[in-house]
Amino acid sequence: MLEHIVSSIDLKIDRALRAIRELDGAVVALSAGVDSSLVAFFAHKALADRAIAATGVSESLPPGELEVAIRTADELGIKHVIVRTNELHNQDYSSNPADRCYYCKDTLYHELRILANNLHFDAILDGTHTDDLSDDRPGLKAAREAGVQSPLLEAGFSKQDVRNAARRFGLSIWDKPAMPCLSSRVAHGEPITEDKLAAIGRAESFIRSLTGVRNLRVRYEKSLARIEVSPEERRLFFDENLMNQVDRQLREIGFSSVTLDLRGYQRKERSGVSDSWVLPLADVSP
Questions:
Q1: Are 23 and 73 in contact (CB under 8 A)?
Q2: pLDDT value for 276
Q3: pTM exceeding the 0.85 threshold for the entire prediction
Q4: What is the mean pLDDT of residues 136-165?
Q5: Is the pLDDT of residue 234 over 90?
Q6: How far apart are CA 63 and CA 114, in angstroms?
Q7: Ranges of each domain in the chain
Q8: Helix (H, G, I), strand (E, B) or coil at 57
Q9: What HEC string does 123-191 produce?
Q10: For residues 113 and 129, is the Cβ–Cβ distance under 8 A?
Q11: Residue 201 and residue 178: Cα distance in Å, rounded?
Q12: Percent of the chain residues topping a pLDDT of 70
């Protein structure tokens, strides 16, 4: 059984590499995640200096993620550039409709296409894999319209395949939790502003530094902060002093109240109203 799994992954790796080798240069849309990092690894292996990695930076990028992307590119040996995007200034994005991600990715791919053209590179590559097709991802529509290629998807990689391959090749972030943009924490229909994104980023940075939690979301809805962590990490919050510290700091940041989602973080991004029970982190009278 193990030999079958290994040979299956080997076949997918070979397919991805062969597809990339056919390209005359590629720009890899490198977030700080394992999917795009594996694509960057493959692109550098297949194309050498005819491949570069590009990271889009805006107010919605979670704190620390740019540093992870820079570190990863250096680890892989691939040239890395930073591209400034301005999706927050687009009303279609900042009004936060259900297809908000489309406008974000449309902005990013427009910038990456300019970069690719300037370098005389054929392609833009992303980290989409087969598991992504089961989610509602408006960004995939933007990718198709921009002619973005997805070598992992074309080779049949699942998310687990991605992690297995990244671990095999020694990528340090092979088990890094997903980290979507900060805008995904804001309930659809509630406008996205720089102040809200900054508050979410500060809140998540503080909670991580205090608890060491890995999988974290601070959901924002009408100035309420709802903390979600993976079910196995909920125990980190079961301390009265810690809960008081979190509540006090997040109120200082600007949240009107702070709750902990008792069900824990679910894989699918949820930016609407939670239907799970929530626990106030401190019983503070208004």
A1: no
A2: 43
A3: yes
A4: 95
A5: yes
A6: 26
A7: 2-168, 182-280
A8: strand
A9: EEECCCCHHHHHCCCHHHHHHHHCCCECHHHHCCCCHHHHHHHHHHCCCCCCCCCCCCCHHHHECCCCC
A10: no
A11: 15
A12: 91
Q: How far apart are CA 171 and CA 38, in angstroms?
A: 8
DSSP class of residue 196? H
Assigned architecture for domain 182-280? 2-Layer Sandwich (3.30)
Q: Which two tokens stand for residue 111?
A: 């910038």
Cα separation of 15 and 250, whole Å?
Answer: 47
pLDDT digits (tens, 9 = 90+) for 243-272: 999 999 999 999 999 999 988 887 654 433
**Amino acid 265: pLDDT:** 82
Q: Check residue 44 and give its pLDDT.
A: 98
Q: How do residues 56-80 score in pLDDT, each as one tens digit?
A: 999 999 999 999 999 999 999 999 9
Q: Among 132, 6, 112, 129, which residue's Cα sits nearest to residue 56? A: 112
Spatial distance between the Cα atoms of 209 and 228, rounded to a whole number of angstroms: 16
Locate 6 and state its tokens. 């290994």
- Asked if residues 43 and 78 have their Cβ atoms less than 8 Å apart, the reply is yes
2-168 topology per CATH: Rossmann fold (3.40.50)
DSSP 121: -
Distance CA 244, CA 104 (A): 36
Tokens of 4: 């079958």
In 3-state terms, what secondary structure has residue 252?
helix
Mean pLDDT for the chain?
91
